Amino acid sequence: MTPFAATVPPADNPLLDYLGIRLASVGDGHCVFELDLEPRHLNRQGSVQGGVIATMLDAACGYAGLPVGPDGALGHAATAMLSISYLSKASAGRLRAMASVTRAGNSLYFASAQLTSDAGVLIATAQGTFKRARPRLEN
């Protein structure tokens, strides 16, 4: 486990669960997601599908800026913009998306991420803008 958080709250994201993407660490403006590649994650050429890469990078950047409430639950945000550079292929092993917040305001924050293989190969990078959701008022 990485040093960003002592305990990891649940990602609470059905799509990530379905794809097998695990929240490994979150807090203090950082986030790490991991995925053990399976045949279902690959495209026709036998390498990881670009949409899987985009999903991991988007989630890592987005979660990096989420506040963690006193009960340990994560806040919410929406992606306003995401730019991805696909650099290398991967077809087996574990992928790790590591993100950090580069700048934050009251409602918007900016984050960047790297996706690497377990062999240390840089697969893709991303930069994005995210808008925090307003907390819901209890009735």
From TrEMBL:
<keyword id="KW-0378">Hydrolase</keyword>
<protein>
    <submittedName>
        <fullName>PaaI family thioesterase</fullName>
    </submittedName>
</protein>
<feature type="domain" description="Thioesterase">
    <location>
        <begin position="46"/>
        <end position="122"/>
    </location>
</feature>
<dbReference type="InterPro" id="IPR006683">
    <property type="entry name" value="Thioestr_dom"/>
</dbReference>
<dbReference type="InterPro" id="IPR003736">
    <property type="entry name" value="PAAI_dom"/>
</dbReference>
<dbReference type="Pfam" id="PF03061">
    <property type="entry name" value="4HBT"/>
</dbReference>
<comment type="similarity">
    <text>Belongs to the thioesterase PaaI family.</text>
</comment>
<dbReference type="InterPro" id="IPR029069">
    <property type="entry name" value="HotDog_dom_sf"/>
</dbReference>
<dbReference type="InterPro" id="IPR039298">
    <property type="entry name" value="ACOT13"/>
</dbReference>
